[in-house]
Design goal:
The protein is an alpha+beta fold. It has 2 domains: 82 residues, no CATH class; 81 residues, no CATH class. The chain is flat and about 85 Å long.
Amino acid sequence: MGEGVADIDLHAPDELYDQVLKEIVGEEIRGKDHLLQLMQEFTNAKKEYDQIADALKMVKQTGYGVAAPAISDMVLEEPEIIRQGSRFGVRLKAVAPSIHMIKVEVESEFAPIIGTEKQSEELVRYLMQDFEEDPLSIWQSDIFGRSLSSIVREGIQAKLSLMPENARFKLKETLERIINEGSGGLIAIIL
């Protein structure tokens, strides 16, 4: 066997670089200025994501996740002298927002009434034809001119938008009280 050095010089067209970059980024790059703008947007998005990444991981595993606030988000109130009997101290109080994520299983049902039992059986057979080979393919099934995934997504979105603003506020308020005061005296009544 011989030894040696091989010097290989490869040239790739500039279009190949643009194509690979488009595949990685997932967006058409219109020039160097656009690439720089995208990099800034992605950097900002990455900073935001890094703050909630652990909470997102927790919520996927346990159904509940908390993103602790950054030091820059904390507001320190003015120190206050306090008295306990004959002794004195200083109260330092800080307020900071934390982001709480709760995973909620939202149900959506699509039950078209199409006519006879035979027609219903045909619809089931149509939906199940590719299901055994590729279970995810059922989402692309065309029903009444729309994909099943878009019909179900629309139903879930409608339910999510139905939560009234006052219920959102009460949920936030309750969570704040549990965190700040403890849950010892918590009684929840849902009507």
